[in-house]
Write a structure and sequence with these properties.
Strand order of the largest sheet: 10-9-13-7-8-12-11
Number of domains: 2
Shape: globular
Low-confidence stretches: none
Strand content: 35-45%
Order of helices and strands: EEHEEEHEEEEEEEHEH
CATH architecture of the largest domain: Beta Barrel
Number of helices: 4
Oligomer: single chain
Largest sheet: 7 strands, antiparallel
Structural class: alpha+beta
CATH class of the largest domain: Mainly Beta
CATH topology of the largest domain: Elongation Factor Tu (Ef-tu), domain 3
Mean pLDDT: 93
Radius of gyration: 16 Å
Helix content: 10-25%
Distance between the termini: 30 Å
């Protein structure tokens, strides 16, 4: 389980047949273990190997086809987050690392001291979005607003812009989307009651 608060940036160093190797900041390396989890652009992966400054993970065909991890290029920056541990603060929102859909950046522009991100998403997921709720975009916990005809907006503060791979994103780029788990549980409970 994660929070959507990116803890560092890695870089895709190598892609093999069903495997990736990603660099990571030294402080994160100390907390990583083989068999442990790490979120990469919001996708929960299992660590299968550790180097001095990198880790390896297997990527199934399912993960490659349903997320942006099947499309990232060597030397591309990725957002990294280690899982929550008991007693950790929940600074963002509950993120499982199970991507629901791939969306697309429709616009990303400077506005005042920060940035505005406009993202499109598959229409069948509209029921999971709430004005001023929560959504994870490439593993970043953000607050959607102005839900309008298949798009939503998110304000991006300077710290988020500088500390994530958003600074390398442009209109048209695909992004991993994970919608709020609470909305999914509520939907499940309502279906059972009917």
């Amino acid at each position: 389980m994660f929070t959507g608060i990116v803890q560092g940036l890695g870089v895709l160093r190598r892609r093999g047949s069903g495997e990736v190797e990603i660099s990571l900041p030294p402080p994160m390396r100390e907390r990583l273990a083989i068999g442990g989890s790490i979120a990469v652009n919001g996708v929960c992966l299992t660590v299968t190997g550790l180097g001095e400054r990198s880790f390896r993970s297997d990527i199934s065909a399912e993960t490659a086809s349903r997320t942006t991890l099947g499309r990232i290029r060597t030397e591309e920056a990725v957002n990294l987050e280690l899982p929550l541990s008991l007693g950790s603060p929940l600074d963002g929102h509950i993120v499982l690392g199970h991507v629901d859909a791939v969306g697309r950046i429709e616009a990303f522009y400077r506005e005042g001291e920060g940035w505005t991100l406009i993202c499109s998403y598959p229409p069948e997921y509209r029921r999971y979005l709430a004005e001023k709720g929560a959504v994870a975009i490439d593993g970043i916990s953000l607050t959607p607003y102005q839900l309008d005809g298949g798009t939503f907006r998110c304000a991006v503060i300077p710290a988020t812009y500088e500390g994530t791979n958003l600074k390398a994103r442009h209109s048209g780029d695909p992004v991993n989307l994970e919608f709020d788990i609470m909305a999914k549980y509520v939907e499940g409970m309502v279906r059972v009651v009917r």
